[in-house]
Amino acid sequence: MFKLGISAGLRSEMKLEDQLPLIKAAGFDSFFTSWSPTQPIETYANIAQKCGLIYETLHAPFDHMNDMWLDNIEGDACLKRLMSCVDSCSNNGIGKMITHVTVSSVAPPVSKIGETRFGKLIEHADKSSVKIALENLEIPEHLSYLFDKFSDCKNVGFCWDCGHNNCYTPNTDMMELYSDRLICTHIHDNFGVKNPPIITWHDDLHYMPFDGNIDFSEFGKKIKKSGYQDILTVELNVQAKPEYKVLSTEDFIKEAYKRALKIAELCK
Fold it and tell me: Out of 45, 150, 199, 234, which could bridge 105 as a Cys pair, Cβ 3.0 to 4.6 Å?
């Protein structure tokens, strides 16, 4: 039986602390949040423990990820920030950190300095008993490079974002490549690449499952084939559709849970 998770922080007008009891009441088993130096991660972790929720992952900031591949001080600062995110995971019983490996559809080429920085991050995470989940994005080359270079590292895994796969790399079966490394999921819907061959983040809609054109029957088949039995996590944007905006936070979470249950049925 799959556990079900959701992205927290759905509405800025409601504190995340107040959303967690609603997430639990709807039926979800877990959640994840983004990380920043100002986010009260310890507070979230304490509330989660009281609610009986699993704090599945922290999502690392990604705005400067291209600098990881460049020989500059910004790249060093980016690595330091990622290290701090790992520390937050370790200090609060969060077993996985999700990170992008680039940002946007244009990035520097893979490089030795990038490999070295990610190596330091992975080593630090391993010493902290934290797994690094690399997420698929617009550019598949950097992901492939890192999985090849760190193939022997047991704490490096794959976060399959099916929405990203649909709207960024629809002709690349990410699960065919990395299902043996799958350690977490991001599940949401969209309508693919609207103006091919132009790849843009504007197509990354983060709709609820079944509101776009992703074939979730195929999604379920890929999960079953992989043997993955961990948490199925929906990552949603409450601002994505007018129909979502008019729902209360509680009703949005309840509807998200219904969609997550349908996904879980397809994965059995």
Answer: 199
3-class DSSP state of 213 = coil
**Would you list the DSSP string of 122-135?**
HHHHHHTT-EEEEE
Tens of pLDDT along 193-233?
Answer: 999 999 999 999 999 999 999 999 999 999 999 999 999 99
User: How do the domains of the chain map onto residue ranges?
Assistant: 4-267
pLDDT score at 163? 98
pLDDT band at 262 (very low <50, low <70, confident <90, very high): very high
Q: How many C-beta atoms lie closer than 10 Å to residue 152's C-beta?
A: 6
Say which residues have a Cβ less than 8 Å from residue 39's Cβ, sequence separation at least 6.
33
Digit-coded pLDDT (tens) for 175-186: 999 999 999 999
Token pair for residue 250? 């509680």
- pTM surpassing 0.70? yes
CB 69 within 8 A of CB 107: yes
Max Cα–Cα distance, the chain, nearest Å = 49
CATH number of 4-267: 3.20.20.150
- Distance between CA atoms of residues 268 and 221, nearest Å: 9
User: Taking CA 225 as the corner, what is the angle to CA 56 and CA 151, rounded to the nearest 5 degrees?
Assistant: 65
